[in-house]
Amino acid sequence: MTRPLTLVASHPAAPQARPLLDELSAQLGARFGGDGRDSFQDWSDDERHIFLLAQHGDEVVGCGAVRPITDAVGEVKRMYAKHPGQGIGRAVLAGLEASARAAGYDELWLETRVANAEACRFYQRHGYQRIDNYGRYVGRDNAACFGKQLGPVPATFPN
I need a labelling partner for 100 at 20 to 30 A (CA). Which of 65, 71, 75, 121 fits? Predict the structure, then answer.
């Protein structure tokens, strides 16, 4: 029997998150020369900063975050699935989108590397479209930025 995947609200500094974030940083550093470790330097403990962990039973298998860019736009950061191809990334992204809607975001943006073709395809499959590079990614030819309109909070969304 397959263990169910559960998403839990957490914090990027939580002990359960560190091994996943370290694995992600090591992979990004090896593949693309930058590890993204500075993603949480401006992290705040409020409802606009969202960090989710995905768990199969007691094993933490994925994570992702949203932080504010503006009142209406959140930025997806540090998406990672320990076991690719098992729906972990899809579940984390769906959880982030639902949490972002509930927190009042109208849109999510994100950046990945142009060379990270699998990530670009993943986001496009989930409704994200290329947008102009924003913020610190302006003028960086190796950056691919994506955005997605979230729409209204469903009437059945639990509080």
Answer: 121
Angstrom distance (rounded) from CA 67 to CA 77? 8
Note the pTM of the prediction, 2 decimals.
0.87
CA–CA distances in Å: residue 54 to residues 12, 36, 39, 87, 105 = 13, 20, 19, 11, 22
Closest CA to 79 of 71, 137, 67: 67
Give me 90's structure tokens.
């899809």
Domain edges within the chain: 5-149
Chain segment 135-156, per-residue pLDDT in tens:
999 999 999 999 999 976 665 5
Q: Which among 136, 133, 56, 127 is positioned nearest to 93, based on CA atoms?
A: 127
Contact call for residues 90 and 105 (beta carbons, < 8 A): no
Angle at 110 between CA 142 and CA 82, to 5 degrees: 90
Q: What is the pLDDT of residues 94-129, one digit of tens each?
A: 999 999 999 999 999 999 999 889 999 999 999 999
5-149 falls under which CATH superfamily? Gcn5-related N-acetyltransferase (GNAT) (3.40.630.30)
Q: Please name the residue ranges forming H helices in 33-149.
A: 88-102, 117-125
